[in-house]
Request: fold
Amino acid sequence: MTTFKILRFDPLTQETPHFQAYEHTPNPKDSMLDVLKDIRDQQDPALSFRYSCREAVCGSCAVTINGSICLACRTQFEDLQTDPVLIEPLPNLEIQKDLVVDLEPFWEAYRFVQPYLQPAGDVPEKGHRVEEKQMEAVFQYITCIMCACCYSACPVASRDDRYLGPAALAKLYRFVLDPRDKRPYNALARVDSPAGVWGCDTVFRCNEVCPKKVRPADGIEGLRRKLIVKRARHPLRRKR
Amino acid sequence: MKNHDLLIVGGGLAGLAAALSADRKVNVAVISKVHPLRSHSVAAQGGINAALGNHPDGKEDSWEKHAFDTIKGSDYLADQDAAELLCRKAVPLMYELDHWGVPFSRFSTGAIAQRPFGGAGFPRTCYAADRTGQVLLHTLYEQAVRKSVTFYDELLVTNLVVRDGRCLGLVAYDLAKGKILIIPSKAVIFATGGYGRVYQRSTNAFINFGSGIGMAYRAGVPVKDLEFVQFHPTTLLGKNILISEAARGEGGYLVNNQGRRFMADYAPSVMELAPRDIVARSIQTEIDQGRGFENQSVHLDLRHLGRDKIEKRLPGIRDICIYFGGLDPVDTPIPVQPAQHYSMGGIDVDKDCASPVKGFYAAGECACVSVHGANRLGGNSLLESIVFGKIAGESAVRFVEGGASDPTPEDLREIGREARRLYELTRAIKQRAVGENVYQLLNALKKVMSDKAGVFRNAENLRSALEDIAELRQAYRRVFIVGTCDRYCQEFTTLVEFDYMLDVSEMILRGALNREETRGSHFRTDFPKRNDEAWLKHTIMTRQGNFPRISYRDVDLSKYKPQERKY
Reply:
């Protein structure tokens, strides 16, 4: 029997969050998502949390377990070795209910960077030709599942809600790296600001917590280099 | 919620493709019970088929050969005209997807890379490592963001409202607000996905309840071929997470406890790359006859591929094995077993994705055109969801532009009545002090389906399963909600969806019991042969009172004559 202390909060009816303790004996091979589901199914149907794929590819179930930001589905109960186990929502985001947080600031940043390929011209008759190596460079970033672990771990995003955060910037860099993308210079200028790439204070919490080894900070670094090179080439177009 | 001409239910590949093809022509919105990027399309791994002929061994490939492989793979139950449409559209679609930004893996020529897949005559599966579904879903969502498509996330549609053969709109539960909504619409497209979670062992996401299929059936839309359930041969022992067919496409071996590549006994000419129904049965037979490991798995051995190839082509599979199986496929064979994976059957629609109900369309896994017949080939589902998602969007636009009438006050009252029924039902459930726990019923249902309607079926088990379903229906009437919870109440959503799951399960069982033959994924141990004379036809079920009325429809055989299916 293990005690699971889970943060409960309904902002519409309650003043403050509180921890509720559940006694539960997980199966040896259970993930923390299995544990949450079993507690809900057997003890407290009103407990709310997000989930979908249970295989670390949909990005739904990011939570904080024993103080570490992680995907519940990929965190194995056996590996925790603590009693009690503490489960909280992602930090630095508003709680909608229990472990469900409002990800709108995260999606807003995502939309802001224009997260889509901007190719030139119409569909080429036989498709684009892309060097194998160039496409593989993009692969580092396309493994991102938009779980918001990095966003909620980022110290800059937590103190400055204008900051776009690691995932959105890494997403932009994925397109900048893509040889099919022909976005104009001013598309990069969107992130040439303290709310963009210059906001990052390079403590690399994002790289640390990313469950998919994306290393978003590499993308931010890459964007900074791009901007510096472009400024050198286009001194007159430099803003401010 | 604003008024929209066309509502698309489901934000996976089919729903997004429909939205992209319909947006800006009519006023569209996508409703999804999760954020679209959480949809199950994201979990597809191996690839998407198109006869591009980029592979050195694929120069002779053509969309006609792709169509033939699809038809043969379907055990001749696919409608041949529909399969041809699918495969013809595949080639230009790949270039369009490429232009939208899908990061396909490349050959050294710079062209889109292709790999061999089961049941295919040529290597024609395009891929992005083993994350093809993820990159496709993300790319289509990106395009939707680009076009500023309207999304309503975390809204569970609970009822499709149809009157006099015309679709009026929807009832939905808003998870964030905890409210029931009345949503009129000129046209509706269902892209609600499969029903994997009516089975205990399934590769599907936890959210795949198949309620969309049940909802359509309940509203009087016919459903088709539900008895055909695909069991994926290779799922990770324990969690049943998909281990992509790409693992075998890249050269992986299936090995039994005697160290033998047993596919030599079942499909000697293609070995591990036989279609999924055949490989799944072969694995289950090995396990059942004592040649498995601990009577529950066989080994998928990738070790001879080497670290570099595994890291480059199958990085996602390696991660899954490490994090969820506690082993590294570079050093250790993967224990695998068959599990439910895909629903070939679904809402009965034609090549335009239109159902017999005016203004109601369906696409993707929840629909049955039919292009997959009795067995789907790997790499064809991503293709189908996008091709037919687009077609559904175009068809719905034609319908709306063709003068579909605005909802009348009477229409609104009708939707309101459905909403009230749901509300009353919930209130009654909440007032009960004791009763059945819906999650326990759900677990019981899953066990029935896995035990009695799995890879191998027979009349006795199917009949007994139907009795079990009848009992579960009785129990469902006594169901009650334990806590008090209105917002993000997953017990409520499960409660609503479970009712539909009972219908879907019953139709799988009835279809399977009636079809006294073996075809594709449907294997009857008491009728182990295919019977074209009696059963070369689609099963159609339409609700009449509280029961499905069964009828049959001929298969389109305009191109190829059915032959014995050998590999």
